[in-house]
Amino acid sequence: MRSIYCGQLNKSHVDQEVELCGWINKRRDLGGLIFVDLRDREGLVQVVFDPEVEGLMDTANKLRQEFCVQLKGVVRARPDSQVNKDMATGEVEILGTSLTIINRSEPLPLDFNQQNSEERRLKYRYLDLRRLEMSDRIKLRAKASSFVRRFLDDNGFLDIETPVLTKATPEGARDYLVPSRVHKGSFYALPQSPQLFKQLLMMSGFDRYYQIVKCFRDEDLRADRQPEFTQIDLETSFMSSDEVRAMTEKMIREMWQSLLDVDLGDFPVMPYSEAMRLYGSDKPDLRNPMQLVDVADLVKDVEFKVFSGPANDEKGRVAVLTVPGGAELSRKQIDDYTKFIGIYGAKGLAWMKVNDRAAGVEGVQSPIAKFLNEEVINQLLERTNAQSGDIILFGADKRNVVNEAMGALRLKIGVDLGITDLDSWKPLWVVDFPMFEEDDEGTLHAVHHPFTAPKGISPEELEANPAGALSDAYDMVLNGYEVGGGSVRIHNAEMQETAFRILGIEAQEQQDKFGFLLDALKYGTPPHAGLAFGLDRLVMLLCGTDNIRDVIAFPKTTQASCLLTDAPSKANADALTELALDVVAKDAE
Amino acid sequence: MRSIYCGQLNKSHVDQEVELCGWINKRRDLGGLIFVDLRDREGLVQVVFDPEVEGLMDTANKLRQEFCVQLKGVVRARPDSQVNKDMATGEVEILGTSLTIINRSEPLPLDFNQQNSEERRLKYRYLDLRRLEMSDRIKLRAKASSFVRRFLDDNGFLDIETPVLTKATPEGARDYLVPSRVHKGSFYALPQSPQLFKQLLMMSGFDRYYQIVKCFRDEDLRADRQPEFTQIDLETSFMSSDEVRAMTEKMIREMWQSLLDVDLGDFPVMPYSEAMRLYGSDKPDLRNPMQLVDVADLVKDVEFKVFSGPANDEKGRVAVLTVPGGAELSRKQIDDYTKFIGIYGAKGLAWMKVNDRAAGVEGVQSPIAKFLNEEVINQLLERTNAQSGDIILFGADKRNVVNEAMGALRLKIGVDLGITDLDSWKPLWVVDFPMFEEDDEGTLHAVHHPFTAPKGISPEELEANPAGALSDAYDMVLNGYEVGGGSVRIHNAEMQETAFRILGIEAQEQQDKFGFLLDALKYGTPPHAGLAFGLDRLVMLLCGTDNIRDVIAFPKTTQASCLLTDAPSKANADALTELALDVVAKDAE
């Protein structure tokens, strides 16, 4: 029905007759002529209907926004004065010679010329996706998937599908359950990741596996989370963590080069401990140059308990952030930042403005200066290398609170004061994570997952000091987002049983939940390692949006609803009877 | 850890030092030497450990089947007398120079040298997949997916993901339901296909969409069905059914060419009515040349009620199958075929052996000859063009019974008697399906689905004679398997409402279930058409197996269980409480 897409037309087509299909993006009547912008997925082109062409004007007169039409016409160059530089096809226009209205449109419930509420956009998603801004994102996503597949195909990875109806796995989040009709009272779980299946594929000898695959988590949703999300999931045998990182770094670098024409360069590698020390975060945004500086040793003996308390607590931390030009912050701004870090549990925000560095203690202004002696202040100025005009912000609390609060404050101030270069790209690898972290009750949890191998130690050494063990895990971080993460996996049964034991999973539970994995480890399991990227996040970054729903064709709300189809919805009673299920309480609705 | 895959070695590598990783496929000790076949995903190579190489034999002596090892060695040509022509690498062998056992293996629970029960193979799937026969299938599947993606990418199709947690849709089979925790008492459904979403994507203007996507049906499983299966799903705008068929036919033809080096040629197009008439099936296996021949008009007036009854019933059919060489069938064989068609509801199998065609009525042998007069028998011989040595088999019953029974019999006899050329490839398109079929209660059901457009008629004409309407639908059939099916879709609200009405879906239910679709049809919907292939079936055909579980890495049993992970399984009580669900009966377990 068409000979070319609207958006592909240019001067090389002048004098050609073309057939186009698309939608009326805009109509204007001018001097007896009717001008329309015709839109298809590749873009817009201007079409002119002229009364001198017979038999067209009646139909053309009926055209309204979003009518779906088919037309023929001749491409002609626009006069210089009418070239539209904002339009890719702006050097040409089509003189219409025939016109068919395929389908009319009622006035739209969305106004394409202004901001619409997200609720409305999601309800009429099929219309929202007509906006070129949105369709460009979905197209870029398709390109990204395609790029990844070709890269991995070309590198010997096999695309192998793993089950969606599977067994509950221990990724740590809540599973979505699917009741079985055949086995009444039993449930499948939707996978949080294909972790165990991809490990089994390595045990089968497939050597290199990948899949772009939907995963599911029934968690309370944040702005950048969805109940179903898409992973680029991969696993390799006989490769070290260095090799896995090198290969996947190459993939991401080439992807950015190919899709954005951006060179990400080599990715620096940073140990977890350094990331926490310098940025208070395991996914530091390196577009922001500010770093935290530890000063506990300087304030151990001051009278100010707010500082000396954490400074003398082995679980405490005292660290400062020196903000260039921050001395100009108003009292109000500082109060706002104090409130901001309160979200993270920080009880206050001590500060010290450096008005005149050369004047030493005389040159600083701070409500807490009186609690610190001159020597301490001088040491602080020296260690932070603060300059005139800077402000020094203090975090002093439990280590976790300082890291979270000061880490978040660093990000916020970086953007607020224009310190962060938002147009740059800063990737890195974070490595050497601890194997386990302790919760408030002193229970150990896996930082990655229970199948992650420790780095360079035996099962005995791991059991002797689990809290001190590092894992052979790695996260890829880009502009402060964790875009991918993975690890070398445990490939022998003894180590796996040790890891389970440390996590409090006793022998019987090991058998019930992971018997098949422990079995499989007995039959010549190869060393293996892998990684999973969050495709939604990668595409979000590629598109330059921070709303994950903008890169998903049919996303769900933060209430896990689809406003378009009105899912979830009531099931009919027969279906529930067949599943032997009863809904016992509806009050939470 | 390796420099090359085992299976890639050949004479060009002679004298090179290589590093290999893999599994001990077989070990033999001979004249003081130890020979092993080392296996990786690309194949096998023979490695020799010679006592003259120092410090290796102790380790080599420990090798057992399925040990995972890393080794170095030098490639050398085998003497002519020892070349193994059955082995891709059989012209060379490796002289081992170093050997590390990465992981030992206990004796396997599967015997790779003999047939194992499918139950055992599924329980130890990770081991079963080590067999080259199985891993080759999974690799061919990956190649097939990759081929499809490249073809569709190159033809302007966009890979767009649609939701897995969605709303119940009316594909006709039972949905898998997923209880919502946030909206207690409500359920998502897993998609039976992305049908409505892909139509919405056309309404959004994406023009060409595809996805290789998991779909779900909670149906009682047959040998070639799985609860989750994979579709190559595609949809286009502004293309006619001819164009969609031409493009997808090209894809399958090029796929067979590329993966099997087989030329499928042009696909013939056959109306549904002809397929039913000639083959009793809407997915005829054209590798079998036998056709059904209608003879109702010949037996309308015979006394034999078994024939004359259906011959005079407008819902009846009397048809014969002439089997070349079938006069040699024994009484026992004919009895077995009679039993076989009993499965399809046929009450008996009348037959007539043509012992001597030239002798006319005298030359036939048949228990029913006495009920037919000479003229009828002569007419039968003439119409069937039966030859001496053939047998004529009669089907006389309700049309459905005759079609199913004689269609199945045709397939079975074709294979049993070697009439079907099992080594050939016979694709075709079946088109011009009826829009609706009537069930025993006289209710109309959609033959494809309720969104399929009728062929060349208006909503008024459709409503006036729904039972007579043909749809613009098409199925691709290959060797008797329906490998793909699709249709032109309804693209205006009036026609869609008419179709719903004919199916007994009244206005309120239309709004509740499909309100968003009817809404969407108001805003300039383009004409659109699409198709979905069953990837599992395509790969099954590519692999030459008739067990669909052989082409799925982790399949489920016909009881919808995963024997490897033991899914489905009990959910913990807390999870059910959070979902506000109660299991009300377990007796069906």
TrEMBL record, chains A, B:
<dbReference type="InterPro" id="IPR006195">
    <property type="entry name" value="aa-tRNA-synth_II"/>
</dbReference>
<dbReference type="InterPro" id="IPR045864">
    <property type="entry name" value="aa-tRNA-synth_II/BPL/LPL"/>
</dbReference>
<keyword id="KW-0648">Protein biosynthesis</keyword>
<dbReference type="GO" id="GO:0005737">
    <property type="term" value="C:cytoplasm"/>
</dbReference>
<dbReference type="InterPro" id="IPR004524">
    <property type="entry name" value="Asp-tRNA-ligase_1"/>
</dbReference>
<dbReference type="Pfam" id="PF01336">
    <property type="entry name" value="tRNA_anti-codon"/>
</dbReference>
<dbReference type="InterPro" id="IPR002312">
    <property type="entry name" value="Asp/Asn-tRNA-synth_IIb"/>
</dbReference>
<protein>
    <recommendedName>
        <fullName>Aspartate--tRNA ligase</fullName>
        <ecNumber>6.1.1.12</ecNumber>
    </recommendedName>
</protein>
<keyword id="KW-0030">Aminoacyl-tRNA synthetase</keyword>
<dbReference type="InterPro" id="IPR029351">
    <property type="entry name" value="GAD_dom"/>
</dbReference>
<feature type="domain" description="Aminoacyl-transfer RNA synthetases class-II family profile">
    <location>
        <begin position="146"/>
        <end position="555"/>
    </location>
</feature>
<keyword id="KW-0067">ATP-binding</keyword>
<feature type="region of interest" description="Aspartate">
    <location>
        <begin position="195"/>
        <end position="198"/>
    </location>
</feature>
<dbReference type="InterPro" id="IPR047090">
    <property type="entry name" value="AspRS_core"/>
</dbReference>
<feature type="binding site">
    <location>
        <position position="448"/>
    </location>
    <ligand>
        <name>L-aspartate</name>
    </ligand>
</feature>
<feature type="binding site">
    <location>
        <begin position="217"/>
        <end position="219"/>
    </location>
    <ligand>
        <name>ATP</name>
    </ligand>
</feature>
<dbReference type="Pfam" id="PF00152">
    <property type="entry name" value="tRNA-synt_2"/>
</dbReference>
<keyword id="KW-0547">Nucleotide-binding</keyword>
<feature type="binding site">
    <location>
        <begin position="534"/>
        <end position="537"/>
    </location>
    <ligand>
        <name>ATP</name>
    </ligand>
</feature>
<dbReference type="InterPro" id="IPR004365">
    <property type="entry name" value="NA-bd_OB_tRNA"/>
</dbReference>
<feature type="binding site">
    <location>
        <position position="217"/>
    </location>
    <ligand>
        <name>L-aspartate</name>
    </ligand>
</feature>
<keyword id="KW-0436">Ligase</keyword>
<dbReference type="GO" id="GO:0004815">
    <property type="term" value="F:aspartate-tRNA ligase activity"/>
</dbReference>
<comment type="function">
    <text>Catalyzes the attachment of L-aspartate to tRNA(Asp) in a two-step reaction: L-aspartate is first activated by ATP to form Asp-AMP and then transferred to the acceptor end of tRNA(Asp).</text>
</comment>
<dbReference type="InterPro" id="IPR012340">
    <property type="entry name" value="NA-bd_OB-fold"/>
</dbReference>
<comment type="similarity">
    <text>Belongs to the class-II aminoacyl-tRNA synthetase family. Type 1 subfamily.</text>
</comment>
<comment type="subunit">
    <text>Homodimer.</text>
</comment>
<dbReference type="InterPro" id="IPR004115">
    <property type="entry name" value="GAD-like_sf"/>
</dbReference>
<dbReference type="GO" id="GO:0005524">
    <property type="term" value="F:ATP binding"/>
</dbReference>
<dbReference type="GO" id="GO:0006422">
    <property type="term" value="P:aspartyl-tRNA aminoacylation"/>
</dbReference>
<dbReference type="GO" id="GO:0003676">
    <property type="term" value="F:nucleic acid binding"/>
</dbReference>
<feature type="binding site">
    <location>
        <position position="226"/>
    </location>
    <ligand>
        <name>ATP</name>
    </ligand>
</feature>
<dbReference type="Pfam" id="PF02938">
    <property type="entry name" value="GAD"/>
</dbReference>
<feature type="binding site">
    <location>
        <position position="482"/>
    </location>
    <ligand>
        <name>ATP</name>
    </ligand>
</feature>
<feature type="binding site">
    <location>
        <position position="171"/>
    </location>
    <ligand>
        <name>L-aspartate</name>
    </ligand>
</feature>
<feature type="binding site">
    <location>
        <position position="489"/>
    </location>
    <ligand>
        <name>L-aspartate</name>
    </ligand>
</feature>
<dbReference type="InterPro" id="IPR047089">
    <property type="entry name" value="Asp-tRNA-ligase_1_N"/>
</dbReference>
<dbReference type="InterPro" id="IPR004364">
    <property type="entry name" value="Aa-tRNA-synt_II"/>
</dbReference>
<keyword id="KW-0963">Cytoplasm</keyword>
